[in-house]
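Why do we bother with a discrete structure alphabet at all? Because it lets us treat a fold like text: something you can write down, compare, and reason about line by line. To make this less abstract, here is a complete entry for UDP-N-acetylmuramoyl-L-alanyl-D-glutamate--2,6-diaminopimelate ligase. Read it the way you would read a sentence in a foreign language you are learning: slowly, and without expecting to understand everything at once.
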Amino acid sequence: MKIEDLAGVLPVDGVLPRDVEVSGVSSDSRQVTPGILFFAVSGSKADGATYAGDAARRGAIAVVAAKGVDLSSAGLPVITVDDPRRALALAAAKFYGSQPETMVAVTGTSGKTSVAAFTRQVWKHAGLAAASIGTTGVVAPGRVEYGQLTTPDPVALHKLLAELAASGVTHASMEASSHGLDQRRLDGVRLAAAGFTNLGRDHMDYHPTVEDYHRAKLRLFDTLLPKGAPAIVFADDAWSAPTIGAARAAGLDVLTVGRNGQFLALKRVEHERHRQRAEIECGGTIYEIDLPLAGDFQVSNSLVAAGLAIATGTDVAKALAALEHLEGAPGRLDLVGTTAQGAPVYVDYAHKPDALENVLAAVRPFTTGRVIVVFGCGGDRDRGKRPIMGEIATRLADVTIVTDDNPRSEVPETIRAAIMAAAPGAIEIGDRRRAIHEAVGMLHAGDTLIVAGKGHEEGQTIGADTLHFSDHEEVRNALAGVAA
Ligand SMILES: CC(=O)N[C@H]1[C@@H](OP(=O)(O)OP(=O)(O)OC[C@H]2O[C@@H](n3ccc(=O)[nH]c3=O)[C@H](O)[C@@H]2O)O[C@H](CO)[C@@H](O)[C@@H]1O[C@H](C)C(=O)N[C@@H](C)C(=O)N[C@H](CCC(=O)O)C(=O)O
Ligand SMILES: Nc1ncnc2c1ncn2[C@@H]1O[C@H](COP(=O)(O)OP(=O)(O)OP(=O)(O)O)[C@@H](O)[C@H]1O
Ligand SMILES: N[C@H](CCC[C@H](N)C(=O)O)C(=O)O
Ligand SMILES: [Mg+2]
């Protein structure tokens, strides 16, 4: 690509000769190779501008930086913009060129991974070549890969989207995390529709207030979606009304789903142990759907996913019929096994208060005995959620076992103590393996065990080391009677 090809997204005129070849774009000087256009972005730990010299030494052709940043010593032509992160996203989109024709994104505190996976499955059922991108990685026809971030950085994202488009993928759903939205990672994605699930306490180590966190999420609707595009909003959350208001004000076609929804109205749900029967009304017709998943919240997630598929052209009856074949995303209320007496053991990714509350409430209706929960809180993350989650667990479970979940650089005992302080009667077992085995050993007929917090994760990070650890494996071993 020539630098002039970026003229639509960057003020390149007069900075470099128009026919200078660009071999790529990057915001990480360590990744710069000759011909790369370097973007100096200011981050949480460092300021990219201080690495412009490094980028120059590695062969960058120019640096894109915020107005007012002094880069006179970098020895590179400077292109100035208002928002270097947005410029990077738009330039990455232009550089890699193609994206699946129909792209949708979903945001919300909980349910993003599930909705992205469900939307892909609904499209697939409708005969479309579909992919999903999120916390558990990339899933596409012939491709399953684990990813590092929920919303990949724009350079990795557009490289991936171009690969997917080249492989024939026409439809892709992706998660829009608040970090991703705030850091402009999705700004170059051509979105056809977007979804909102709910808002609760999360990432309070990044966003100063819950209002700031909500504002970051709203960028998806008021900045990224084109006017007139459909916004599928779950209508039964405390934050639904302000989200609907903002989406309407942005000129979007707001389609609400849920008990209070109008586009897909949930009329009735009957919960069974591992499945649910839902009556959904759309355009005056009632559809009866057998959802093969446990958990009230999965009904909500299915409605958002079906809404996204319908809003982007899938036939209503086909989309709703596809819900009968949904598979849960890995580690989301994932039934790993049952004891000889039939007590189910679920692995779930609830690592924030609302998610824990929902998952414990979800299993109560089909638990005739006790609900037992094993969970902990991650180190180097929001400390405020620890007592809140302790309180939720002891209020909603009959037996609470507090254990470790990625203590990272923190002292594990201190994290557990903060949870225990609000969890009277809870049992403290730091070693997660032992905690899981003891919990499985306690199960009687009618009980349900939830091992929460790690979901699909395959490691336990203690200090700087990540040791292999899988809740799925430990549950299976404990059920098989293998010693801890
Ligand atoms: C806090 C955060 O979100 N950080 C992300 C952010 O880094 P940053 O911009 O703050 O980077 P920084 O370290 O301050 O450096 C500033 C700039 O200097 C550059 N640099 C730095 C060193 C050097 O030698 N040369 C150089 O050019 C860096 O590449 C960067 O561009 O941008 C980077 C590139 O996109 C991300 O990899 C990085 O994610 C880190 C690893 C991370 O852990 N992020 C998590 C918190 C995250 O984003 N999570 C969300 C939500 C998860 C969920 O709830 O599902 C996600 O979407 O995954
Ligand atoms: N719609 C929902 N409402 C409330 N809780 C939910 C909902 N969907 C999922 N959960 C809970 O949140 C956990 C994470 O679900 P999921 O991975 O789909 O959400 P996410 O938004 O992608 O989360 P993360 O940001 O952690 O990746 C689930 O394991 C479950 O406990
Ligand atoms: N995206 C989240 C995941 C948290 C999962 C939990 N197991 C933990 O380690 O706290 C984070 O990195 O904060
Ligand atoms: Mg996710």
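What the structure line is telling us, in plain words: The mean pLDDT is 95. Residues 433 and 484 are 6 Å apart (CA to CA).
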